[in-house]
Amino acid sequence: MKVYYHPASTTCRPIMLFAAENAARVDFELVDIFTGVQYKDEFLAINPSHMVPVLEDGDFRLTESSAILKYLADTIDSPAYPKALRQRARVNERMDWINTQMSRDFTYGFVYPQVLPMFKREDPAVQAATLSWGRERARGWMKVMDTHVLGANRYLCGDAITIADYFAAPFIALGDVIRCDYGAYPNVKRWLTSMKALPSWRKVNEAIDGYAASLEDSRFEAL
């Protein structure tokens, strides 16, 4: 089984983290997205959406991080993706929520426009409005996550780690790049601290941590 990836990609790191923590046998093949390899014909034949990650298992391919995590978890019969109908539905729900709510506003609407040139709006007024909207929305989702998703729970779906946690953690940890401390969201901060304590976390995230370090003199807007 092969996964095309880049270690700086937020959608790749959940798969890298899960594979590392669960000794999943995956061959990771680097796609240098910073040199535009993903737009070349060779890779477009693999994923016409020109994005990573892509899982390749024989003649079967998947091109979405959430779907890849679920597939990978099932191939190793991982308890992190429970078989019981309602438990599995809860995991699916949390992953969809991260994808369609939290990540849309926090990642793509607030963090990326500050740290990635391709997401930054050229017009300063548009940039300011983008960040204002993204911050407002992200604060709302963080409050939901802190109070209703986590609450007293250790993990996103209860007291056992699931692939929802592996999926969500790299997205939430992006706040480190713009120096968010999550003090207003103590349950989120507690949960993220526990995810960062996983043995493979530092190795999996060394690329994004290095990028964050390169921005230490930059000024950002935080939550």
Can you describe what's shown?
The chain is an alpha+beta fold. It has two domains: 2-75, Glutaredoxin, CATH 3.40.30; 85-214, Glutathione S-transferase Yfyf (Class Pi), Chain A, domain 2. The chain has nine helices and four strands. Strands 2-1-3-4 form a four-stranded mixed beta sheet. Strand 3 and strand 4 form a beta hairpin. Helix 4 runs parallel beside helix 6. The longest helix has 31 residues, at 85-115. The protein is globular. The N and C termini lie far apart (39 Å). 33% of the residues are buried. The model has no long low-confidence stretch (mean pLDDT 97).
What is the architecture of the largest domain at the second tier of CATH? Up-down Bundle
Span of the ends, CA to CA: 39 Å
Individual helix count: 9
> What characteristic shape results from the CA principal axes?
globular
List keywords for this structure.
single chain; 223 residues; alpha+beta; Glutaredoxin; Glutathione S-transferase Yfyf (Class Pi), Chain A, domain 2; four-stranded mixed sheet; 9 helices; 4 strands; 52% helix
Write the layout of secondary structure elements.
Elements: E1 2-5, H1 13-21, E2 27-30, H2 41-44, E3 54-57, E4 60-62, H3 65-75, H4 85-115, H5 124-150, H6 163-172, H7 186-196, H8 201-204, H9 206-214
Parallel strand pairs: 1-2
Antiparallel strand pairs: 1-3, 3-4
